Amino acid sequence: MSSVEQETNNAMGAPLSAKSKTLESGAAMVQNFAPVKGICAHLNAFHIYANEPDRCVESNHYCTHLNEDVRQCIIYDTPEANARLIGVEYMISPRLYATLDASERKLWHSHVYEVKSGMLIMPSPPGMPNGLWEVAETKEMEDVVGLYGKTYHFWQVDRGDKLPLGEAMLMGSLTKEGQGGEGLKKAWKERDERFGVDTQQKREKRQGIEEPEVHPDADQAWKK
User: Fold this and answer.
1) Using the 8-state DSSP alphabet, how is residue 2 labeled?
2) Quick one: which of 131, 172, 175 has its CA closest to 47?
3) Which helix (H) or strand (E) holds 190?
4) 93-131, pLDDT tens digit by residue?
5) Angular region, 197: left φ>0, alpha ψ -120 to 50, beta rest
6) What are the C-alpha distances in Å from 14 to residues 1, 2, 8, 18, 141?
7) 3-state secondary structure of 70
8) CA 212, CA 146: separation in Å to the nearest integer?
9) What is the pLDDT of residues 159-168, one digit of tens each?
10) Potential cystine with 118: which of 47, 197, 201, 203 (Cβ 3.0-4.6 Å)?
């Protein structure tokens, strides 16, 4: 069977050969992976397609801080070792967002609803006491709530693609209740069960997080 006819880890292609596994292990022992070693947060939420906002996809963000005003995140479809890299997101502070021209600002989305609704979570490490992790997560949400994100997905896994096909897709965020339809409700419930989280509880714990004003040029997916 050719590699075109095979599927491995939900992608078209043959399993890794013994040679590839050996080379992979050797490289991991001697090479410096400094950029990815800087990852300091795993965040999980749902993105919507800017040109088709009723479509949503679960997104696992692995983020680093370039500085106090800029974060950059690699996005995977799952948090597992065989996850597919499906996109990237940049997050910037409101003061940097204000320096962008109007056409550029329209490519960015807010995180207020994601935070306040309990949708955006920072999955807890195994064995971590829930109370301690909730405190850390809430602190992270206080930092994220005012940031603006610019996100592109390259791999449309939600439609079953086995390769990253077509153009990169601009993504956005949900901004209020009722968006995303029944598909989102089902995916959100399944996500919470998988990670063992309670969205309603998170909403209550985040009531004290100040809700910043969102610039009118952001979240254009919902203004067309």
Assistant:
1) -
2) 172
3) helix 181-195
4) 999 999 999 999 999 999 999 999 999 999 998 888 888
5) beta
6) 9, 8, 6, 12, 40
7) strand
8) 6
9) 999 999 999 9
10) 203
Q: Which of 8-17, 103-112, 144-153, 179-188 has the lowest mean pLDDT?
A: 8-17
Alpha carbon 132 to its chain centroid, in Å, reads 23
DSSP letter, residue 221: G
Cα–Cα nearest to 170, from 107, 100, 222, 103: 107
The answer to whether residues 41 and 63 touch, using CB atoms and an 8 Å cutoff, is: yes
Q: How far apart are alpha carbons 209 and 190 in whole angstroms?
A: 26
Determine the Cα–Cα distance for residues 169 and 50; give it in Å rounded to an integer.
Answer: 8
Q: Residue 43 in contact with residue 149, Cβ under 8 Å?
A: no
Taking only Cα atoms into account, the Rg of the chain, rounded to an integer number of angstroms, comes to 19
Indicate the residue type of 222. Answer: W
Residue 64, classed as helix, strand or coil, is strand
CB 211 within 8 A of CB 112: yes
Residue found under tokens 């996005």:
75
Q: Give start and end residues of each alpha helix (H) in 38-146.
A: 94-97, 102-105, 112-117, 130-144
In this predicted structure, the answer to whether residue 174 has a pLDDT above a threshold of 80 is yes
Q: What is the per-residue pLDDT for 21?
A: 62
Structure-token match 């995916």, residue found:
187
Distance CA 78, CA 75 (A): 9
Ramachandran region, residue 196 (left: φ > 0; alpha: ψ -120 to 50; beta: rest): left
What is the structure's pLDDT at 12?
80
Contact 167, 155 (CB under 8 A): no
CB 221 within 8 A of CB 50: yes
